[in-house]
Every structure is written in C-alpha cells, then in structure tokens.
Amino acid sequence: MIDIGELLRAYREGYFPMNDPSDGQLYWCCPHERAVVPLASYRPSRDVRRLIRRNEYQIRFDTNFEGVIRACAGPRRGESETWISEEIVSTYIKLHRLGIAHSVESWYGGELVGGLYGLAVGGAFFGESMFYRRSYASQVAFDRLVEHLCKKSYLLLDAQIMNPHLMKLGAVNISHESYMYQLDKALHKKIRFL
Question: 3-class DSSP state for residue 118?
Fold first, then answer.
C-alpha cells in the first residue's frame, strides 16, 4: 500500500501516482500541462441534459466506492493493461474510509453502470478515473459531480492528463505554473465533500 502521508503530500505538490503496467512499478506523475475542468464554464452535452431530465440514472455518492474503483481498474476496450494497480486500489479504498476519496455513481435498475472516483482535499477535487457500462452513465455522474462541487464552492477540478473524452467534457490544458497557483488557492479552503 502507498503511504497515505506521502500520497497526500504528493497531491499538494502537484503530483499523482500511476502504475506502469509493463513493469508493475509505481511512479509519480507531474505533467508540464495539466488538464482541469473550469467549473464556472462547464456545460453538459445535450444528450446528458436529456438523460438528467428523464432521470435515466439514479446518482449516488459513496455507496459503492470499491465497486467504482475496481470497475475503473479494468482495462479499457481494446487495451489489455491498466494503470490502476491493486496497490492503488487498496490505498484509495483506505482513503475512502478516511473520508478523503469519494465516488459518484450512476445506477440503473439497481445495478452500478457507471461512475468516477477521486480525492477531495480542501477546495480541490482530483478526478482519478471513470467507467461506464451503459451509454453516458459516466458523463451523467460527472455532471452531477460538477454540480456538487459548484454548490460546495470548490475552486479546482483536476482532470490530470488530457484525452479526447476529457476534452468533450470541457477540460482545458493549463501550464504547470498556473495549475500550482490554482491548487495553492484551493488547498487553503476548508470544505467537507459530503
């Protein structure tokens, strides 16, 4: 298991852990450009808005954290490996028990069909990973996360490394310097996630 103190110190300094599936080694990542989702300008897609109006998914917070992280740890379609090792899973389950890691879950017909997990520290939420088993299930969970963060006056939604899916969700790349400035401001806030 990763040392909890070391892990939280790393996040405060702009790093996050990843596992290299090729050799099983954990390393600390600090990209030159950081993907963040500007909370004030976030807008859900038309499809997500439609699903929310229809109450297609029941959204829950922290009712099945382990189910979410284990689903996220499964390899993506067309891939055979994942960066979420068992060491990461067990560490984040411990962080969840400590009230630091949280899940946002989409349920359909009593089944967990999508969601995401991350860490809430001060006024920053560090998004780690998402998964879905039904169309738009993770995007609806993400939309509800953004709504929740805005209501609680969070300042930063860190999406870590840009990819096409995050771009569709409204993420933008910012410089490391800009990220560290925003992170410092966010960490000075005291906010309870739930």
Answer: strand
Taking the domains of the chain in order of start, what are their residue ranges? Answer: 4-187
Quote the DSSP letter at residue 84.
Answer: -
Q: Is the pLDDT of residue 13 over 90?
A: yes
Distances (CA, A) of 8 to 47, 87, 132: 36, 15, 27
**Helices 65-73 and 86-97 sit at what angle, rounded to 10 degrees?**
160
Query: Cα separation of 3 and 100, whole Å?
Result: 14
User: Where are the strands (E) in 48-110, listed by range?
Assistant: 58-61, 101-108
Question: How far apart, in whole angstroms, are the C-alpha atoms of residue 37 and residue 66?
Answer: 25
101 strand-pairing partners:
119
In 3D space, the residue among 161, 28, 18, 29 whose CA is nearest the CA of residue 82 turns out to be 18
CA-to-CA separations, 126 to 95, 134, 161, in angstroms, rounded: 13, 24, 11
Identify the residue whose tokens are 């963040």. Answer: 36
Measure the CA–CA gap between 185 and 4, rounded to whole angstroms: 22
Q: How far apart are CA 49 and CA 66, in angstroms?
A: 28
Which residues, 6 or more positions from 106, have their beta carbon under 8 angstroms from its beta carbon?
A: 57, 58, 59, 112, 113, 114, 115, 132, 134, 137, 138, 140, 141
Give CATH for domain 4-187. Answer: 3.40.630.70
Mean local confidence (pLDDT), 119-140: 97
Global pTM value: 0.94
Read off the pLDDT of residues 97-127 as tens digits, 9 standing for 90 and up.
Answer: 999 999 999 999 999 999 999 999 999 999 9
